Structures are given as C-alpha cells and as structure tokens.
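User: Predict the structure for this protein chain, please.
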Amino acid sequence: MKNTGLSKFTRILLAVCGIALVISIFVPLWSIYLEAPQYPEGLSMFLWANKITGEYEIINGLNHYIGMKTIHPEDFWEFEVLPYALGFFALLCFLAAILNRKSWLYVTTVLFLVFGVAFMVDFWLWEYDYGHNLDPNAAIVVPGMSYQPPLIGFKQLLNFGAYSYPNIGGGIMFAVAGILAILAVIEYRKPTSERVLS
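Assistant: Here is the predicted structure, written as structure tokens:
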C-alpha cells in the first residue's frame, strides 16, 4: 500500500513553520535604509504586515523635492491582506502536520511559493511606480533620472545610498519557503514502502 503519510521530522518542521509565520505578522518584514552626507545617522523605514514605521515622514519631505509620491500607510491595500494571508499559510502548515498527508504538504508548498513570488513582484511594481512616476513640476528635475529603490541590495540615487533588505519577518518568509520546498522534495523522493515515523 502506498505511503501517503509524513515523517515525524516533517510534521515537526511544519508546525515550526506555522509558528514562525504567526510571528512574522508581528515583526517588521522589510527594511529600507537611506544614507547621505547630510544624514550621517541615516534614515530608516520599516514595512510590517499591516503598517509602516520609521522615518518615512522625513523621507517624504526629501522626496517631495524630486517629485516622488509621498508614502501613506493607508494607500497600501496590501496591509489589509497580508496579516490574513500569513495567518492562512500558518494554518495550512498546522493542518498539513495534523492531517499527516503528503498532498497537504505539496499544496501548502506550491501555494506559499506562488504567494512569495507574487509578494516580491507586487513590491517591485510598487517600487517601480514610486521611483518612475514623478511630478514634472518638482523643484529638482534631472532629465532621464529615476529613483526606484533596489528590491534587495544597494543602489545609488543621486547623493543618497539606498539599501533594501528583508527584516525578521521577511527572513522568516524566505526560510519557510525554503523549508517547505526541501520537505516536499524529501517526502516525494521517500520510498513508498517506508513506514511513517511515529
């Protein structure tokens, strides 16, 4: 008879992934950090699942001169969705562990990977619009210049150096995606005659 159950190790890691995703709702997901000679201490902005914190109001004031849109938390529809999406995937991880079926692991893995890719694409599109859709009547206009922040890494924007990288929550999401993918491959390749560890 074909074995459709999961190993004890896989079920434990699924539960850990579920707990981690719950934690990601309450910690910053992403960080954007700006440095310039006039701001030696730097300016930081933190994106959470449901809000923005940090010095984004100061960043708004600076970006106004080059025609960039101001950042307002209420303009992000993602903040209405992300906490529930992360909670949903946490629930899927718990269900896959409890129901002890490979099919649930596979479905959870595929859906979370698709969600992760969509999350990154959506973030990149926001950055693109933020950096390219400029006010032509701004105080400072540099022909041909755009100010799209990097998705991950560093980019020089005039006299500002911009850094963008995952914070605790983003790191959790990347880790969960990697763990789920590895577990799915291990369970798929596991011999069908192997007994479920208990």
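Helices lie at 8-24, 56-64, 78-99, 102-132, 168-189.
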